[in-house]
Amino acid sequence: MSRTPTVRDAFDRFLTELQVGRSPETVRTYTTALTCFGEYLKQAHLDPVKSDLTSVRAEHFLDYPVWLTGERWRGKPR
């Protein structure tokens, strides 16, 4: 029986598949975006390393742009 992948597993798989036929800059851009989303998830009390993919809910995606804007205004890296 296979386990449910963690959020981090999904990020890693996506980035691995993305490397085929994409420029290194594209891969870096997506890596940065997923790292930032992972930071948001941590602050939303969902650790990407420990939480399975089914833990991510629609509200995480809806709240993320608001969080991202707040982080940018506080001068934190994206």
Describe the structure.
The protein has about 80 residues and is mainly alpha-helical. The chain is about 60% helix and about 0% strand. The chain is built from three helices and no strands. Helix 1 runs antiparallel to helix 2 (about 25-45) and helix 2 (about 25-45) packs across helix 3. The longest helix is centred in the middle third of the chain and has 20 residues, at about 25-45.
| Total strand segments | 0
Q: Give the overall shape.
A: flat
The major beta sheet can be summarized as: none
Radius of gyration: 14 Å
Percent in strands:
under 5%
First-to-last CA distance: 38 Å
Tally of individual helices: 3
Q: Which regions contain 5 or more consecutive residues with pLDDT less than 50?
A: none
Query: What's the rounded overall pLDDT mean?
Result: 89
Helix percent reads 55-70%
Give the SSE string. HHH
Summarize the helices and strands and which ones pair or pack:
Elements: H1 7-18, H2 24-43, H3 58-73
Helix pairs in contact: 1-2, 2-3
TL;DR of this structure?
The protein is mostly helical. Helix content is 62%, strand content 0%.
